[in-house]
Amino acid sequence: MKLNKPQYNNQIRAEEVRLVDEDGQQLGVFNLPEALAMAKEKELDLIMVTDKAVPPICKIGDYGKYLYSLQKKERKNIAGSKHGETKNIRISFNISDNDMLTKMIATEKFLNKGDKVNVELRLKGREKQLSNVGLEKIKKFIKLLEEKIPIKIEKEIKKEPKGLSVTILKK
Description:
alpha/beta, Translation Initiation Factor IF3, 2 domains, 4-stranded mixed beta sheet, 8 strands, 36% helix
């Protein structure tokens, strides 16, 4: 997590700044020495919030607290971006009904977390000649899952060299 530290106090090189106080109230445009004096008078720092505006926007506040709040936002963004992964569920050609229910429960958990689920059915040896039976197994799995949770098929059932697969997500 690399955080670009904002400029503060004497690091600021702009001649004029738009000033915001510690409560978020806009004070107006001041030249830099006046803004620094106002911050020093309140025993706080002058922190450059953005340099993209003309004049740059600066805030009066505690630099340490401001950095901490930026780091906290960054951690929250990183933690929030984890969702949306693709999870794999593999069912076998000779899967029993009980095992299918167990796989459905796991799939349901993934879908409720917001993840996509790729359901695979691997075919080995002579099972490859019976791919239509495997297709029925996947359709049965999806039908049983639809009874519990509303799903949307993102990628249709596709025949691959190693078997069949389908990608689903929650509506």
